[in-house]
Amino acid sequence: MKSLFAEMKTDLDFMRAHTLQPGWYKVLKVFILLGALAGYWLTFGWRKTVVFFAAFAALSLAVHFVYRARTHKWTTSWLDFVVVEEDGMRKTQRIGKFYYGAVILNAVLSFLLSQVTVRG
Fold it and tell me: What is the pTM (predicted TM-score) of this model?
């Protein structure tokens, strides 16, 4: 169990420190997600919202773990995740179309799943 917490700490430390997105967007995306979920709830009801959120969270975790594995814990470049060396230190550049494409695909699949599997 200790290694699980160490791995989670590695990811949390990376998420806090990365420069893949502007700092203001890291905060704004929480409010975007909460606003989208509130709108979804008001439009489609709580059951479909729960299914949407669960599916979106699971698919997003899958994307996270794929990127984590392919970049060797955020240390090497893969697809639109680019690691460069500046002044002897590794730095990441902005992510792009593959990552955001996966997020959009996750949202679409989650929407479809919530609409097809939940009645009323």
Answer: 0.89
